Amino acid sequence: VQLQASGGGLVQAGGSLRLSCVSSSRALRAFNSYHMSWFRQAPGKEREFVSAITWIGTTTYADSVKGRFGISRDNAQNTVFLQMTSLKPEDTAVYYCAASGTVTAKAPTGPESYDYWGQGTLVTVSS
Question: Hey, what's the torsion of the CAs at 12, 62, 7, 27, to 10 degrees?
Fold first, then answer.
């Protein structure tokens, strides 16, 4: 599975961005059988969970983004999205999409559970 993230950029605080992650899956399993997530990593910090969506559409959010970010997926297009609103300077980070083949009802939130990663897209929020 190859993941390609895009949509990052520079935005003022309070603004919005939508990230996309397209999968070019050559795995035996179809895209719609993977849990998909977004993580982020700010300079000097560890990678942290942002949001996840299961193969059936159940979503999970980190407390820091709950109510501001929305994750969705289009299985027909092999794409997962992250709609980010009311952005804050502390949201500045490289955002990574990831795919997990874990067979669980809920998407995992630990990066160690993810099998495939995109290259990351930089989001910078100015104050």
Answer: 170
Residue indicated by tokens 């999409």:
97
Which amino acid is it at 108?
P
CA 122 to CA 95: how far, in whole Å? 6
Q: 102, 35 in Cβ contact below 8 A?
A: yes
Token output for 78 = 């092999």
> Which amino acid is residue 114, in one-letter code?
Y
Contact assessment for residue 51 and residue 69, using Cβ atoms and an 8 Å cutoff: yes
The β-bridge relationship of strands 9-12 and 121-126 is: parallel
Q: What is the 3-state secondary structure (H, E, C) of 44-90?
A: CCCCEEEEEECCCCCEEECCCCCCCEEEEEEHHHCEEEEEECCCCHH
Confidence of residue 113 (pLDDT cuts 50, 70, 90): very high
**pLDDT number for residue 27:** 63
